[in-house]
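seq:
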Amino acid sequence: MSIRLGALDIVVVIIYLALVITLGTMVKRKAARNIGSYFLGERQLPWWALAMSGSSSYFDITGTMWIVSLFVVMGLKGFWVQWIWGFIIPVFYMAYMGKWIRRSGVMTGAEWMETRFGSGKAGELARASYTLYAVLTITAFLAYGATGMGKFGAVFLPFNEHTCAALILGITGVYVVAGGFHGVVLVEIFQTIVLTAGAILIAWLGFSQVTPEALQAKVPAEWGSIAPQWRFDYLSGTEYQLFGALLLVWVAKGMLLSLSGPEQLYDFQRFLAAKNPREAAKLGALWGVIHTVRWPMAMALAVMGIVGLAEQGDPETVLPAVIQNMLPAGVRGVVLAALLSGFLATFNSTVNGGASYIVKDIYQKYLHPSATQRQLIVASYASSALLIVLGVLVGFASSSINQMFTWIMGTLGAGVLLPNVLRWYWWRMNGWGYAIGTLTGMALSLVQALTPQISALPLYVTFPAIALGVLCVSVITTLVTEPTDRATLIEFYRKVRPWGFWGPVAREAGPAPAQAGMDWLTIVTGIPWLVAMYLLPVYVVLHRYVEAATAGVLVAGLSIALYFVWYRKLENE
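struct:
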């Protein structure tokens, strides 16, 4: 395949990549001070910068290609699939989870395990199991990103998908390794600006180029309705035919994920890096707001593909095909830079977050406890590079974005989901229960992936089977082993101030501020607020102004409500 980018497009992309690499490496000296600087920016970064970084790290090309393909295939009902990755989780971050994470004061999610389960054998095993899960998940996410980048790059470059993935990840890996968390956040501020401008440009192109009449002539009647339905007859033979059963799994997974704290393991890093719990809550709210531009961009790409392209054999390639075939020179380069911003933001965060687990929870914890700061920084460089190589190699084994994402978020996620929920809200949950439960879940998810007969089963069979099996293992193991020592539980309760089933510990620790009621009021108000905010510009792209106006009224009214039930009550910590 010959290169099909115009000279102007190539210039735009080269300038963009040069700026990104320059920004990422210019803070190399600051990142190399110590691992607190390399992985958390010494907790001195402003909350709005962390919010921009976190939100853009969700905005990857691979995920956007997947979302576009869902909109192409099932229209607005594709929004329901987004529950699988907990797209409402910013509401939980702003309500209470961001504060809980920041109050713990640790460096990684695995290190957090010892503050919850103690430093004895149970706590050590919980920390080790979480570290294993972190490395497995982050490697899988990098492979998922490599799969998408391969498909994306092969449309524009004269190489096959695997070569494109290795080339793009290898070049951009330079500044991720060198710049640490300072470099990640600095680059992602720039990337968020580029990404937002590009997303608005794409949304405008979709709005201006595709009329409602042209779209209606190409799609089934139910394509434009967001109302769920039990079956999709026109999708017979696909995994989405029994849509209602999958929807129940997606919503259950999204709610449990939101209750469990970050499953995207670099999310923990953003909230731990905040200056204080109040700023952690504010960055959670802004995180969700910034992410709004993703949805009209994805819908615009979908409708341009439906109307303007010949039928695509692989809906996951609609996004690059629209860019290649339907955008003018110059604009194509700007859009490519914007989409590269999304990919690089996710890639940066995944590598830096994954390296923090390898260095802090494996190298320093077990291999070299007396390592100097210089040795830890070198280990950080090596760990970052290792993760990039592993991600590319594992990505070579997969050809489907949907397959990778469903396994990571549905099957692997099911294996750790309920232990992650119980650790926050049930005082009796101990390190043994957490570790044995999550190890069982990881083993079951790998069996599912490697056994053709089981991997062929739909998600509405495998998800509840794995999740309920892990729940039973976790609870039984917890109840037949000794509780976490009371001093650790009291210290955790006083520091983090969780709510839930903490009665015996709360009585010994002394009264804590009653927050559960207000937190849930924020959640009940915040979920429709966030969903309406995401739908509003999508309806504008589709020229559906009545629905857009309704969503706008909801956003305005619920914003006022959130000011009183959430913002005015934020603790000034």
